[in-house]
Amino acid sequence: MLGAAPTQRGGDRIIAALLLLSDATAAILLAADLLVVCGSVLLRFLFNAPVEWADDVARGLMVGSSFFGAASALARSENLGVAFFVDMLPAGIRRTVDAVGALLTSIIAGYVAFNAIKLGWLTTGQTSGSGLPLELTFYPMGVGALFMTVFAGHLLLRRSFRDTLAGAVATGLVVGAYLAWDGLAPASVPSSGTLMLAGFFVTLFGGLPIGFALALAALTFIWVEGTLPGVIFAQQMARGIDNFVLLAIPFFILVGYLMEANGMSVRLIELLQRAVGHMRGGLNVVMVTSMVLFSGISGSKMADVAAVGSVLIPAARRSRQNPGSAVALLAASAVMAETIPPCINLIILGFVANLSIGGLFVAGLLPAGLMALALIAVSVIFGKSRVSRVEAEPRPPMSGLWSGAIASFGLIFMIFAGFKSGFATATEISAFAVLYAIVIGSLVFRELSPRTAAHSFVQAATRSGLVLFIVAAAQSVAFILTLQQVPHAVGETMLSLSGTHGTWMFMLLSIAVLIVMGSVLEGAAALIIFGPLLLPVAVRLGVDPLHFGVVLVIAMGIGLFAPPLGLGLYGACLIGNVPIEQTVKPIIGYLGLLLLCLLVIAFVPAISTALPRAFGY
């Protein structure tokens, strides 16, 4: 036992060194991606010299950065999971369940690593459309997953031997029970699809991170069915994120972190506080308008929540406002901002459902405006007069605030002008938005040092790795569902119900499905799985696809922030340092208001379709 502590400290140092290497690799790959995208755009427009290999290189770098970023997130235990049910268990059982989750995470990560490296070996000698070696996509993915396996194993071994053993025994008993059942009465064993579904919900509600619960669902089908090779699983995960469109996700997330690092966020919020903070319910109005503006710059809702909440939740405490209500409004504002471009979920839905991303961006503006006005009206009607600031609190000069506001609006204008002019795609615009934020922060505000910029790249690579790993795992599940012909069955069922009760029933069912699944899944996964299932049915029923896409994204957002399972609400509570119990009552009121707005949006299509038609989408 005397040697255990030094051995553990030595292991921790090795893991710390590996984490530093994983962070650096993810950030360097993301920075290289930025240079490739910006360089290819400039060469195309300035010298009429398109770089044929740029898209292939950019996609490969993104896959590698995503898996290294996801590995870093796993090492820091930042993965999203449903903890509500596990927290209700007795302490001993909870430790065993957590150990089972850690063991499953290690197994899944190892399986991904092995098959990604194997896929790289199998594709050696094959080339992409531009002539680049195909294995260069799979080997970085495999090495990133290998880092993930090491980190997962370390988290497992850090538990007590008793808990680890209990977790291994519990897992072995479940597997042994299935094998015995299959051996003794194979005809009575549930189908592979049923086992996949059951395994997904059991592990999800058991606290397994969402990305790994989705991956395990697909693996359960593959292992039980026994006809699909493991490399198909790795191939589908890579295919889920190997797309140039999705590269906009890490870039827009990076913009959000750079805004926070270069002082743009604080300046804009302070200016809003001085403009409307004095009115009745002024702090709440500032919170809603801040989310509107920040969502027009950063595609990550949690980055927006962090930027706004880190400034305004402490301000709510200082003004003796209930912090639980403030966090609830912050979460509701994030739901409202789900359709404000450049929202990540709009990008993902456009990708998986083959919709115009620019059209979705424009279609979401008026619905977001309606919800924002509803939240502002409630804030003013039920708000209290603003308590004056403490005199000793420093106030920055107005000139600096206006410079921050002008810089922020310049970034918003650049994003919208880029889409409308056709100068560049969503991904290319997001890359130039990153350059804009770097230039403003380092040369204009002089608050963005190389160290803080590097930290922003690491944060963005980790956060986007979390999101894109879930996207990759959801793609593997979507592939299995397609094999099972689930989309066809869902479509026929929905058409039958709509034929009996009308299109309104289809809309209500779609909203209900996305709210429920948005609460148990991270938003991207819900859209990847259910977007392609429901959208073809909507088109067959005559529903405008852009309108329906906006409805789906808002419904998913309501579920994402709905208690008790909504992962977005847990994130907002962590940022505001408020127990979730204090937010339940106010958030239900705000979400009820947003649900009414959603029903209006759903049954008045012109709210979503007027602007796209005016802009030619």
From TrEMBL:
One of its GO terms (molecular function) is transmembrane transporter activity. It is found in: Cell inner membrane. GO terms for cellular component: plasma membrane. Residues 34-159 form the Tripartite ATP-independent periplasmic transporters DctQ component domain. It holds the Pfam family DctM. This is TRAP transporter, DctM subunit. It comes from Bradyrhizobium erythrophlei. The keyword Zinc does not apply. Residues 198-607 form the TRAP C4-dicarboxylate transport system permease DctM subunit domain. It is a multi-pass membrane protein.
